[in-house]
């Protein structure tokens, strides 16, 4: 099979930042599915792993990354019970395993869902990682429930891949009042299209949120930089409120500043369940299936904003470059 990977952490402009190569098609065993991939999407985790996995060394084996895919089940391991050959599936995968930047991939059935019937291959490929991240953060970590309907949520980073689906799920599934941050005209418009009630500029966050009519908010989720926005979040969160983040702080976070308000703080990493083979790992299968129904009945819509045609090093470099610019809106997909 054809795969694309890297052996050194190089700037995306370098010729060998991604290399195309042939390798053995893997064999499905145990609870693994062998999936023939038809489309993938890129996420910030992709370029972070590419930039940091082989900084001062050359890897002996070419590393295949990628954590969003849609495709057809080609074969199943002997212990598989959830899927059969020919099923259409979508998933985000496992960061400890070989990724989706290949023509075929092995993936544990417990972290795979059925592809939404009404979405194209490209539309479906855009969704798993961001959708799982948001669903776990809202409903498994913060534990937002029916009694929270109507409460206020501030989303820091509303126009990115995670923020886009977070706006939709917060609004359409949880029934929250959504305030999203965006600074450029096109990203502000995108947030409104996703269903945000208010869009504010993150550059003067406290003032902007308060000018929108909220002295404080019930929930805050950070999808950008927990260090950069920490003081603003401490100011804006209501007493007994909850803050969640997916970002990677370069400095310590001072949790003591939350004590006076008895505020809870939650980390979310979508890979935790697969990385540690947790007892509830199959929860991701159920979330993806539940989301498939929500796509099919029109409750939520795909957040694809750009589709590149052809599985090539050129397209992967282009997609990573767009993400690294920090100005991409929604999701970037590569269709095979």
Automatic annotation (TrEMBL):
Pfam families: ADH_N (PF08240), ADH_zinc_N_2 (PF13602). One of its GO terms (molecular function) is oxidoreductase activity. The keyword Nucleotide-binding does not apply. CDD domains: AL_MDR. It is found in: Cytoplasm. Keywords: Cytoplasm, Metal-binding, NADP, Oxidoreductase, RNA-binding, Zinc. PANTHER family: QUINONE OXIDOREDUCTASE (PTHR44154:SF1). Homotetramer. Belongs to the zinc-containing alcohol dehydrogenase family. Quinone oxidoreductase subfamily. This is Zinc-type alcohol dehydrogenase-like protein. It comes from Pedobacter agri.
